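Field reference: sequence -> structure
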Amino acid sequence: MPHIDLPEGIPGIRSAMTFRPETAEPLCLLAETLLRDENTLSRGERELIAAYVSNLNDCRYCQTSHGAYAAAQLDGGAELVEHVKRDLASAPISEKLRALLVIAGKVQDGGKSVTEDDVARAREHGATDVEIHDTVLIAAAFCMFNRYVDGLATWTPTDPAVYAQMAERMVEHGYLGIVPSGR
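Structure field:
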């Protein structure tokens, strides 16, 4: 049960955004920019970063929703997403993405945990400064989003079909398509 009077039947962050639509627009714009704008990392890879950080933060809603969004856009689907969350070291992903996920995990632990060696390893595997920047910002943003969702105790659906349906909408319409118009 949510800690404040959030709209019923609206899952996760969307209920909090409906409660305060004036804050929703910039948050959705940030997510749209980081996860869907043109980038050398695929949308699926960027969603995987969001799901991975959300898993480390134990945010059930965000790890499940962004895991579904990543799965819908990556070869390997849900099995790959679960493998990355369970065992990053053995996941069948590129070394560049693995190095970026290591950086994301260190940001989740605390920004100062990221070392020059972590950045150098990512560069050795072909990561650009933009990709490193965006990985750090995705990880930092999802620490905030996870705390927003869990700090208000928003409703987290348990039915996987709900997340599959959300993934379909997100892949087609993006984050700006979820900006609420108000209560």
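Note: The first helix runs from residue 12 to 19.
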